[in-house]
Hints:
By secondary structure, the chain is mainly α. It has two domains: 9-69; 70-103.
Amino acid sequence: MTKRTRRNHSGSFKAKVALAALRGDKTLTEVAQQYEVHPNQVTEWKRQLLERAADVFDGGAAVSEKESVPDLKELHAKIGQQALEIDFLSGALTKAGLVSAKK
């Protein structure tokens, strides 16, 4: 028996399979055979779709995107720290004779 490599399915593929399972015109086994995935995976994607469907209309997705964006103060602090590190390293390299002072 040959071992099948792990496949990564896109979100649109998962949604298509879950919606096909929700329609109910085919059994889970038939849907799984049609899309060449395991029936347990179809059940899991269907469960996830049902759990997260309300987030589409509640704006839950927009809230999670805002949380992932770094704060402006954090970005300014990081820029300042990187500027200090660059100045320090350029001074150290100049003293070591590895970089000339003129550019």
